[in-house]
């Protein structure tokens, strides 16, 4: 990426989710237009940086097992004209950070992280066999077996709950202190959920609807620096996209295949 301003580079570096290294979509789906790109959340970010110890390994080969076989959740996810039924919710509030992962009918998984650093909202569709593996452990009867006296109660500023829906639509829920004591039978249910939440929060490919986007002159994207950029030109021979910031006199050049590394979503 070439930049016509020194402070723009600094802004990208300062953003809370500036990429530790570029990521390339593993198996790009057919290209889609701006209407299929999710609106960027207010004050949003693409991802959280992966832990330092993982960076060398991920640079060598970017592959997160939790997202194997997953595909982008592009466009409407209605099923027969209806919203997909909720299957599971796991929510954690620890001091100033909220984290939530929700599973829905059809393999749709949605995560939301919100805190002082910004907001991350993502969704993905995981394969049916992967979905079933999560529910082999996180089942209504398994959660029902966890008694309220088995966990440390939530406290002010620290709150978590796991809610699992039964086939009849009823739900079993347990609330607890996320840093308090809890039985192993609860840990085995929430452990895989925490792994998937972490993986989705670090990913910027299959969970980012900008991946696979086919730019068109006039489209507006929100950058990882939280500024809006308008597509001005697509240089066909090189696949480079020229974008102009709508709020500052800045022009940037990004390879079409790398747009998902620098942009969160479309302008609302």
Report on the architecture of this protein.
19% of the residues lie in helices and 29% in strands. With 268 residues, the protein is α+β, with helices and mostly antiparallel strands. The strands form 2 sheets. Strands 2-6-5-4-3-7-8 form a 7-stranded antiparallel β-sheet. It has a 6-stranded antiparallel β-sheet with strand order 1-12-11-10-9-13. The relative contact order is 0.21.
Question: Keywords for this structure?
Answer:
268 residues, alpha+beta, Mago nashi protein, seven-stranded antiparallel β-sheet, six-stranded antiparallel β-sheet, elongated
- The Rg value, from CA coordinates, equals 20 Å
Pairing-aware structural class of the strands and helices? alpha+beta
Give a quick account of the main beta sheet: strands, pairing sense, barrel closure. 7 strands, antiparallel
The third-level CATH topology of the largest domain is Mago nashi protein
CATH homologous superfamily assignment of the largest domain:
Mago nashi
Number of helices: 5
For the record, the CATH class of the largest domain is Alpha Beta
Q: Helicity level, as a percent range?
A: 10-25%
Strand content: 25-35%
Order of strands, widest sheet: 2-6-5-4-3-7-8
End-to-end Cα distance: 25 Å
What is the count of distinct domains? 2
Query: What's the architecture of the largest domain, going by CATH?
Result: 2-Layer Sandwich
Order of helices and strands: EHHEEEEEHHEEHEEEEE
Q: Poorly predicted ranges (pLDDT <50, ≥5 residues)?
A: 1-22, 52-63
Total DSSP E strands: 13
Mean pLDDT metric: 83
Shape, per Cα inertia axes: elongated
């Amino acid at each position: 990426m070439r930049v016509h301003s020194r402070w723009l580079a600094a802004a990208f570096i300062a953003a809370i989710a500036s990429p530790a290294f570029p990521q390339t979509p593993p198996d790009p789906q057919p290209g889609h237009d701006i209407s299929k790109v999710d609106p960027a959340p207010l004050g949003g970010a693409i991802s959280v940086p992966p832990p330092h110890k993982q960076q060398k390994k991920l640079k060598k080969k970017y592959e997160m097992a939790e997202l194997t076989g997953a595909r982008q959740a592009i466009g409407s996810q209605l099923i027969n004209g209806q919203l997909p039924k909720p299957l599971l919710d796991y929510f954690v509030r620890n001091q100033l950070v909220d984290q939530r992962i929700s599973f829905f009918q059809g393999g749709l998984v949605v995560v939301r992280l919100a805190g002082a650093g910004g907001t991350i909202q993502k969704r993905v569709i995981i394969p049916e066999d992967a979905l079933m593996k999560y529910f082999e452990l996180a089942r209504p009867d398994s959660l029902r077996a966890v008694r309220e006296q088995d966990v440390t109660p939530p406290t002010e500023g620290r709150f978590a709950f796991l809610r699992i829906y039964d086939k009849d639509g009823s739900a079993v829920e347990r609330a607890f202190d996320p840093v308090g004591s809890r039985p192993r039978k609860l840990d085995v249910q929430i452990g895989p959920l925490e792994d998937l939440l972490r993986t989705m929060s670090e990913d910027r490919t299959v969970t980012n609807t900008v991946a696979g986007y086919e730019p068109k002159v006039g489209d507006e994207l929100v950058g990882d620096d939280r500024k809006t950029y308008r597509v001005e030109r697509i240089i066909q021979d090189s696949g480079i996209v020229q974008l102009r910031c709508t709020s500052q006199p800045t022009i940037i050049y990004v390879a079409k295949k790398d747009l998902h590394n620098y942009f969160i979503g479309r302008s609302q």
